[in-house]
Design brief:
Blueprint lengths: L1 H22 L4 H8 L3 H17 L4 H28 L5 E7 L2 E7 L6 H18 L12 H4 L2 H23 L17
Antiparallel strand pairs: 1-2
């Protein structure tokens, strides 16, 4: 009984590794070589993982979103590990600068922590919030009366605006001329 339990535990551990490598974009052959198991085993693990992701209530879109979230989680974990590693203080480096007749010594100390890792972590957090829809959506509401009016009313308003613009242009271009209004189509003058 305990052997079966150990075997299931071993499969579960391997599938966690397979999942991480698969989400990093590794192909099945490379995963098999890395974990020193057969390609058929990896293929079965990938199928089981995909089925597990699907049966946990995930549709195709949700499956892709879940995979992207897992990739973000992995990337964030790696960024945190890089940040922790960058916090280790490097030994000060001494330089022996020789100038004319004098000897100077200076030490250069590297700053603690590489801020690029924090930037990556921040980007992961921002991307996760966006993917989950946690940030308030930006809504732009056009309150223009043309949008809210009926098509007939919009047509009337556009004609009014057009006529005003034409009238303004005519008065600016030809202020000294007096224009006789042209007869409207369909109305003949005798």
């Amino acid at each position: 009984m305990s052997e079966a339990r150990n075997a299931k535990f071993g499969v579960a551990q391997r599938r966690v590794q397979v999942s991480e490598l698969y989400l990093q974009g590794w192909n099945q052959i490379a995963i098999a070589e890395r974990l020193q198991v057969s390609r058929a085993t990896i293929s079965g693990d990938v199928c089981a993982l995909q089925e597990q992701w699907r049966t946990s209530g995930i549709r195709n879109f949700d499956l892709m979103r879940e995979q992207e979230l897992l990739k973000l989680e992995l990337l964030e974990r790696e960024a945190w590990a890089g940040w922790q590693h960058s916090l280790k203080r490097a030994a000060p480096a001494s330089t022996d600068g020789k100038t004319k007749g004098s000897r100077t010594e200076s030490s250069v100390e590297e700053p603690l922590g590489d801020p690029r890792f924090l930037n990556q972590i921040h980007k992961c957090l921002k991307d996760r919030r966006a993917m989950l829809g946690l940030d308030a959506p930006l809504t732009v509401v056009d309150t223009s009366p043309l949008i809210l009016d009926s098509p007939e009313r919009r047509r009337e308003r556009l004609n009014e605006i057009f006529n005003k613009l034409v009238a303004q242009r005519v008065h600016r271009v030809l202020p000294a001329l007096t224009l006789e209004p042209e007869p409207e189509p369909g109305l003949e003058s005798p």
